[in-house]
């Protein structure tokens, strides 16, 4: 396996976050609690195809995600805004990853004006991951983000990316939710900048809640195992400041969620083992938000 470069491993979906303010409120609402899932969607993505159900019941929808290829494994959910076609959404998403600088900023604004992002899951070969998201009745898309990132993914021809329609029907359950053991919250702290706040303690095999409270800013949560006990927050900061030669965490074992729109929340069930993980984001303005201090070491145990 080719060792990912700093850009390919950590920038990836970051282009979605640059200066996004346009059209972000069409479906936005304050995060609400996630009930016990009535529907579980089993999604398999890989070089040989993309398998996903086409319907779900409204309310808490669980997704179990598996990848069979190193070129896939970043599956998310999006909802098109009124009047936007699937073809237009594909073109706008592809353009985000095909441009740089100010052109990329404008492309990201155009994408956010076209769709609301509900997050999803990162996984890698040899492990399954899961997440639960609250969905109202309506039409959604399940998509493989890496298909839109050129050579980092499968690099299919335009229009051949893995995108599947998901119809959510108005059938709800009153079952009580399984409470998360901890909540990671993306916040913008006055005078300090973007940060990850943590409530509770992270335990193996327990749900982990992620809430994006960054105003007018999409954001992701990427979790990477830290294998060196000597690594500190300063080492992570040095990496994002470009003063460290290599990431102080294992970029080949990414877990977490692709970007969520502002005000959204998702419940993750990643296969976290006891130990330490770097919680980071590659979403950026002029620099990655983690370069501004939005990173945190999570201890799982």
UniProtKB/TrEMBL annotation:
<feature type="signal peptide">
    <location>
        <begin position="1"/>
        <end position="28"/>
    </location>
</feature>
<protein>
    <submittedName>
        <fullName>Uncharacterized protein</fullName>
    </submittedName>
</protein>
<dbReference type="InterPro" id="IPR006311">
    <property type="entry name" value="TAT_signal"/>
</dbReference>
<keyword id="KW-0732">Signal</keyword>
């Amino acid at each position: 396996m080719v060792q990912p470069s700093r850009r390919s491993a950590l920038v990836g979906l970051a282009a979605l976050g640059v200066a996004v303010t346009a059209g972000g409120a069409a479906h936005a609402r304050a995060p609400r609690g996630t009930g016990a899932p009535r529907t579980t969607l089993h999604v398999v993505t890989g070089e040989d195809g993309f398998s996903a159900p086409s319907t779900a019941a409204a309310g808490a929808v669980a997704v179990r995600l598996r990848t069979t290829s190193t070129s896939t494994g970043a599956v998310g959910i999006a909802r098109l805004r009124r009047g936007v076609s699937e073809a237009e959404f594909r073109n706008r998403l592809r353009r985000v990853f095909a441009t740089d600088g100010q052109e990329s900023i404008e492309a990201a604004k155009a994408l956010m004006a076209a769709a609301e992002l509900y997050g999803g899951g990162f996984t890698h070969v040899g492990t399954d991951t899961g997440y639960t998201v609250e969905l109202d009745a309506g039409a959604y898309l399940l998509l493989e983000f890496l298909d839109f990132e050129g050579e980092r993914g499968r690099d299919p021809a335009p229009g051949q990316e893995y995108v599947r329609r998901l119809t959510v029907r108005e059938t709800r359950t009153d079952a009580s939710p399984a409470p998360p053991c901890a909540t990671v919250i993306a916040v913008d702290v006055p005078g300090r900048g973007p940060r990850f706040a943590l409530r509770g303690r992270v335990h193996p095999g327990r749900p982990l809640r992620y809430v994006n409270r960054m105003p007018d800013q999409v954001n992701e949560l990427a979790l990477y195992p830290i294998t060196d006990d000597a690594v500190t927050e300063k080492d992570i900061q040095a990496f994002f400041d470009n003063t460290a030669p290599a990431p102080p965490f294992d970029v080949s074992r990414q877990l977490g969620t692709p970007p969520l729109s502002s005000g959204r929340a998702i419940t993750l069930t990643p296969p976290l083992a006891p130990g330490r993980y770097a919680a980071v984001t590659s979403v950026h303005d002029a620099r990655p938000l983690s370069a501004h201090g939005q990173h945190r070491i999570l201890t799982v145990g």
